[in-house]
Amino acid sequence: MVSSSAANWKHSFLYLGFLYSLLCFLHNQISHNLLIGHRPVRVKKTSPDLPLRFRSDGTFKILQVADMHYGNGALTRCRDVLDSEFEHCSDLNTSRFLKRMIEAEKPDFIAFTGDNIFGSSSVDAAESLLRAFGPAIESGLPWAAILGNHDQESTMNREELMSFISLMDYSVSQINPSAEDLSNLARGSRKKIDGFGNYDLRVYGAPGSHLANSSILNLFFLDSGDWETVQGVRTYGWIKESQLDWLHGISQGYQDKPPALAFFHIPIPEVRQLWYKKIVGQFQEAVACSSVNSGVLQTLVSMRDVKAVFMGHDHNNDFCGDLENIWFCYGGGFGYHGYGKAGWRRRARVILAELGKGEKGWTGVERIKTWKRLDDDKLSKIDEQLLWEY
């Protein structure tokens, strides 16, 4: 009788111990997930190379990535590749190309010029963005992006997309102009800017030079929109008057205007004129622009600081052409899920700015060059040219 009671007491003690352990475990799990103070806050990683500046050798290199059209990774098939390439081709080929370009060119900065993801093929926009920009994030290099006309066709609208992109590791993208930029505009100018992804990034002089704390190159990013309806007819988006007012105001705010480069996705109507002019590269498809001419070229010409514009959108065009002393350059199709031409290699554009040298060392920007690389065995370098020289 005594031994039976002792056994029951022992079992009850073990059972209570089990219940106590279970309750402690559940308490820890619930509090960990519900109480803010119990979860470590993750801080966005920033590049050690900020602010953007020229290297000590007087150069600043930009890698332009146009039209990745990223979908869902390994599950997303390639378009317009050779039959021999199709079976094993997916979004992973796009990621591999980006990694190779970063390793080969060692850029100081990466500029993604829209249609980063192919919204209609993306199950989850955030996941596709993380995968698309993954190689850039892994590199630890500063990078920035603007939107194309397909990014918002998944689970995020354009504002949400730019907000998410601006919060990603090593991204220096902005949803819209900074408060400082807006406050510096002339009185009476509009404060609301159309679109999402209009911002100015400044590149400073080489370390140790007398211009180390001065902005000597501007990078203007503009949202060219997605789709619009004009008099009942659907057309591509365009850069609006409010954006041009802001851009012109920023440019006028500099006493000594540094040279500038502009980046947006959809080409302007005047690019069509380059069919009749001398170009460097291939003009292989019609320029898919808006039916509305909002005066972008006139604004850029009046500013007198933008030396070149870099676009995407038309994947089979990769040329540069001169419009009123401003070069307009396509990046060429980069991504394998975007349309292309079978046998015509995916490609990327590289932009190199070089400083001059004076008695006090490095001075301002002296020349700007560009070239492209193909996604072949040798990452072949083609179409190197001088865009601007002081």
Outline the structure in words.
The chain has 390 residues and is of the alpha/beta class. It contains 9 helices and 15 strands. The strands form 3 sheets. A 7-stranded mixed β-sheet has the order 4-5-8-10-12-11-9, covered by helices on one side. It has a 6-stranded mixed β-sheet with strand order 3-2-1-13-14-15. A hairpin with a 2-residue loop joins strand 11 and strand 12. The chain is globular, with a radius of gyration of 26 Å. 42% of the residues are buried.
Quick take:
By secondary structure, the chain is of the alpha/beta class.
Question: Strands, helices and their partners?
Answer:
Elements: H1 2-34, E1 59-65, H2 83-86, H3 91-105, E2 109-113, H4 125-132, H5 134-139, E3 143-146, H6 158-166, H7 179-183, E4 199-204, E5 215-221, E6 227-230, E7 233-236, H8 241-252, E8 260-263, E9 279-280, H9 296-303, E10 306-311, E11 320-323, E12 326-330, E13 347-358, E14 361-374, E15 381-389
Parallel strand pairs: 1-2, 2-3, 5-8, 8-10, 10-12
Antiparallel strand pairs: 1-13, 4-5, 6-7, 9-11, 11-12, 13-14, 14-15
Helix pairs in contact: 8-9
